[in-house]
Amino acid sequence: MLESLSEKLQKVLKDLRGEGRVSERHIDEAMREIRMALLEADVHFKVVKGFVARVKEQALGQEVMRSLTPGQQVVKIVRDELIELFGAEAVPLRFAKVPPSVIMMVGLQGSGKTTSTGKLALWLRKQGKRPLVVSADVYRPAAIEQLKVVARALDMPLYESEDMDPERRAAQALTEARNKGHDTLIIDTAGRLHIDDQLMQELERIRDRLEPCETLLVADAMTGQDAVKSARQFNRRLSLSGVLLTKMDGDTRGGAALSINQVTGCPVKFIGVGEKYSELEVFHPQRMAGRILGMGDVLSLIEKAEETVDEENAQRMLEKLQRNEFTLEDFRDQLKQIRKMGPLEEILGMLPQMGAMKGLGNLQVDEKELSHLEAIINSMTPRERAHAKLINGSRRKRIALGSGRPVSEVNRLLRQYADMRKMMKRMSKGLMGKLRRGALGKGLPKLNFPF
Ligand SMILES: Nc1nc2c(ncn2[C@@H]2O[C@H](COP(=O)(O)OP(=O)(O)O)[C@@H](O)[C@H]2O)c(=O)[nH]1
Ligand SMILES: [Mg+2]
Fold it and tell me: Which of 41, 72, 133, 409 has its CA 20 to 30 A from that of 215?
């Protein structure tokens, strides 16, 4: 996500950090590069101008220049300003005092409304809600059918009707939601290639009749400044309550969309990061800034892990790591968890890119390899799993035979296990430890600067 912006910013900041003393010339140079990087990510030029001016003013301030670590101070300033740019604080989804809460999805055609309706319904269900979805996109028969396919794939309740009037369909769905005890209703609406008055009137009618507590603009991040422009127009007519940015998994132009908040005052509430229904994330300005600046998104990772691993289990793992009792059996369980969490690369991408990453180099295994690894560990005796040191040459041969894998693979697994153990130990001592204490304590943890 935003890899090139991220790379460029990280390089500038790394160079700055490397300087013992920071002169005005250094700052000037760095600001020029930051400006370029932001413009290339398609952030609006006015937004860039303000951003660079604010960073520069603070960076040249007396406290920074005279401090012992001016480079790091500048990094912190850039991070804080990025967070501001993205909206400072995460704005949670609103729910009606009296359910059902109505969420209306609006946006241009192809922006990802139907897909995101499914994603959001799934997300809500994971939060313990009972959503119902309905299509009010009556102009293309395929659109109604598409939501049906989505609902079927997710086993999600869908309201169906013969009525082809969008407003009535939505109203009927609301009645259905009330009758059947659904606490949320998501309405997928029609889009156009360009905004037109007729579409806006239709959306206004649905809004007035159903009084949604959320009117979410679904905007395609890859369309850059166009996404910002349409956000402005939708907001003027419909008073948006938030934005769901899709296709943030593409690298280009995402910067534009991230400045939507600055331009329209509408908070980004979710980002879509892939075509799969599970690929929706709550948007956190702080985490996004951290991700872009390469501080890793350990919080998102923890959250993701918590969805699949129960917290107790995670806690136990960490404690084991700290006591250096992480066995091959735990290793196998971790591999299983990683499998549940999704593709390895995605997980690795969220980890801080500091020292920790080095040990992970040879851990990049694919699905098939994962099942081989599991087979190998399953062929070990419990004692071997608890004490990897016992596994000598003849035991390796036996394990290889038992699992039907070559000895070289058994050897490699034992090496990877040792690497992971080392890496996790380092992480649990450092950043992970700090974050965990905060994350498991109250509210959002303080992100200590890991440089
Ligand atoms: N890569 C990626 N593709 C997405 C994302 N969200 C939606 N899409 C794709 O965008 C296309 C249009 O989505 P659709 O939901 O039909 O848009 P709609 O016309 O607004 O309803 C589909 O091919 C989706 O798979 C996302 O977050 N990432
Ligand atoms: Mg659609």
Answer: 41
